[in-house]
Amino acid sequence: MNPVEKSFFHQDAKTVAQQILGKQLIRKTSGELLSGIIVETEAYYGAEDPASRAYEGKQTKMNRWMWMDAAIVFVYMVHGHWLFNVITGKKGKPEGILIRAVEPREGVETMRDRRGVRQLTRLTSGPGKLTEAFGITKEHVGLDVTSLSSEIVVSEADDEKTFTVLSSHRSGVTRDLSEEMRFYIEGNEFVSR
DNA sequence: AATCTGATATGCT
DNA sequence: GCATATCAGATTT
User: Fold this and answer.
1) How distant is C1' of C5 from CA of A78, in Å?
2) Whether pTM exceeds 0.90
3) A169: which DSSP letter?
4) Nearest-nucleotide field for A78 (CA, C1')
5) I want to staple A102 with a disulfide (CB 3.0 to 4.6 A). Which of A36, A64, A69, A70 is the partner?
6) Which of A165, A151, A102 has its CA nearest to residue A129?
7) How far apart are CA A60 and CA A123, in angstroms?
8) How many Å apart are CA A99 and CA A84, to the nearest integer?
9) How many alpha carbons lie under 13 Å from residue A156 in its C-beta half-sphere?
10) A174 burial via Cβ count (<10 Å: 0-12, 13-18, 19+)
């Protein structure tokens, strides 16, 4: 395990969303390690982004993590599913990325148990599925994904493969920005549809 | 493609 | 306190 540098997350949300593709998401539980390769992300901004939790710049109890320093975990509930985000950019500027899909690596049997599904491609191919498979909930809000001791870590992948990054408009967002803010690995079967 | 379920926050009455 | 909206997912048509 080789956590990414904190400075990586100090970059712009769009940059991080693109460059985090292919890196490894690691979840440490008591005695077990789950991991997957990040294959789909979306970038979210603050006051000027109508789809952002920080739209219009109002800080509330639930969205205050958006103003925290980069690399901090932010989880929230939508439609009965937890969605996993990581804060990016400068401290005090609300922006971050949503991890939408991963490709399972280690701990596949535990993921199958948690999801109640056998089919590999249905395990983590969506933002709500991945949090269920990895056991990520509100209790993980505030963790630092660049800390070796954290329960959730973003690590450099051990086998760097080359791939093409494609983009599109964000999924399920009713009022989107004009710029395309969803990024995914071309041809990967774990990218959500 | 349509419908149902879902957990939480927010905005009403 | 209750209705409603939400960055989904699963199931049924």
Assistant:
1) 10
2) yes
3) P
4) C6
5) A36
6) A102
7) 32
8) 6
9) 9
10) exposed
Phi, psi of A145 (to 5 degrees): -75, -5
- Amino acid of residue A193: R
Q: Which nucleotide is nearest to A129 (CA to C1')?
A: C9
Identify each DSSP E strand in chain A by its residue range. Answer: 24-29, 32-44, 73-78, 81-87, 96-104, 152-155, 165-168, 182-185
Determine the length of chain A: 193
Identify whether the C-beta of residue A101 lies closer than 8 Å to the C-beta of residue A40: yes
Beta partners for A153?
A26
Q: Three-state DSSP class for A147? A: coil
CA A141 from centre of chain: 12
Distance A37 CA to C9 C1' (A): 21
Residue-by-residue pLDDT tens, chain A, 193 positions? 899 999 999 999 999 999 999 999 999 988 899 999 999 999 999 888 888 888 877 888 888 899 999 999 999 999 999 999 999 999 989 999 999 999 999 999 999 999 999 999 999 999 999 999 999 999 999 999 999 999 999 999 887 789 999 999 999 888 888 899 999 999 999 998 8
Q: Which nucleotides of B are covered by protein (CB under 7 A)?
A: 5-10
Which bases on strand C have an atom closer than 7 Å to a protein beta carbon? 6-10
Record the tokens describing residue A163, joined without a space. Answer: 């791939």
